[in-house]
Design brief:
By secondary structure, the chain is mostly helical. The chain has helices spanning 2-9, 19-30, 68-79, 116-120, 137-152, 176-189, and strands at residues 37-39, 42-43, 46-47, 64-66, 98-99, 105-106. It is globular and about 50 Å long.
């Protein structure tokens, strides 16, 4: 977004037909590993919502483009196992990854088919809540969708319901413009409830 705003401000920079042209170029570049990585913020040396080779990005003022080499190095560091070394200094032996009877990754040949009792003891539901800062809501909600919701819906037998609750307090009362804009947007987006008190 900073680049887009600079192209509008400085006459010597090349002009694009509209903002969507830039957004499409970024999505195309993000889909390939050789152009750049993307993230929605950086904190304590870690990129929030980091992706490399994924063109499904939201073009807004939180989007960061990461140079290809830096993105590849970061991706490699993220994929390395976090296990340490044994006292003898040798690397730990990792269990071989093989498909488990449940369709996940098991620990190898010692994995046995689940009996009826073991299958019955598996959890049947998941409930999670997260409090999201309004300043980073877009980035965090995308992250929750990528890392939690998409994993849940990967099971074709699962029924996943997502409810977003928004609560805002105005000590001095909400301004008329804010109230009108939020009410109109809530109506057009089809929110189940959008009440002011």
């Amino acid at each position: 977004m900073a680049f887009w705003e600079d192209t509008l401000r400085y006459l010597y920079l090349p002009r694009l037909k509209n903002r969507e042209v830039l957004a499409q170029a970024i999505r195309t570049g993000a889909a390939a590993h050789e152009f750049f990585g993307t993230a929605y913020g950086r904190q304590d040396g870690k990129f929030e919502g980091f992706h490399l080779g994924d063109g499904n990005v939201q073009f807004d003022d939180t989007l960061l483009l990461i140079e290809p080499e830096a993105a590849r190095q970061y991706a490699e560091n993220q994929s390395k196992p976090t296990g340490g070394f044994s006292e003898s200094g040798s690397k730990p032996s990792w269990p071989s990854e093989s498909p488990s009877p449940e369709g996940g990754v098991g620990s190898g040949a010692s994995e046995k088919p689940a009996s009826g009792a073991a299958a019955a003891s598996r959890p049947h539901s998941f409930h999670g809540t997260v409090e999201v800062s309004a300043a980073t809501a877009k980035m965090r909600l995308v992250q929750v969708a990528d890392e939690i919701i998409s994993v849940l819906v990967s099971d074709p037998n699962a029924t996943v319901k997502v409810v977003v609750e928004i609560s805002a307090e105005f000590p001095d009362g909400a301004k008329d413009g804010v109230k009108r804009a939020v009410s109109e947007n809530a109506r057009s987006l089809g929110l189940k409830s959008a009440d002011w008190e």
